[in-house]
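To fix ideas, we quote verbatim a fold written out as tokens:
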Amino acid sequence: MRVRKRKGAEDYLESHPQYVILNPEDAKGKWHQVFGNTNPIHIEVGSGKGAFITGMALKNPDINYIGIDIQVSVLSYALDKVLESQAPNVRLLRVDGSSLVNYFEKGEVAQMYLNFSDPWPKTKHEKRRLTYKTFLDTYKDILPENGEIHFKTDNRGLFEYSLASFSQYGMILKQVWLDLHASDFEGNVMTEYEQKFSSNGQVIYRVEAQF
């Protein structure tokens, strides 16, 4: 997600260490201590302005959620949502999705979400797509055996690419939705992009893939 640079965003994040983990490498293998419980940990890579991660945290108080985004201004808006929600089971990280093994031990993350990732449509940018095989290597390293990725997008090209990437990697496509909002799927929590796109009549695609 690209947003206008927010003045003072970095200071704002640093002033809320109870929600924004400033040195996540120190938490590797210790995330249950950070949350103060042994509940499962779910992460969203590319958390945007935080609507999904806070919505999920409020809906599922027995799961710990971590929202990850590399952009300071974007993460600052996610912090707005967290503070507004007062959800105790959510934390935010300003890190890159390709470096997750620096912050999580094998199996420390129970489940992952990829929502409305940048499609990087040009072939020369394929390696930047969050469902490219090198990213899948990273996710597999921090998820348990049979760990899952739940992926949503409005971009048909990225969706088709991701289905192929998951399959070629040897993952199981547990369920596929070609029109999520027209399906009987229950409990969907929408992202900001999803609200915008669906209100314009765009189809939302979803898949649950398992290693």
About this structure: Strands lie at 41-45, 64-68, 90-93, 111-115, 148-153, 172-177, 205-210.
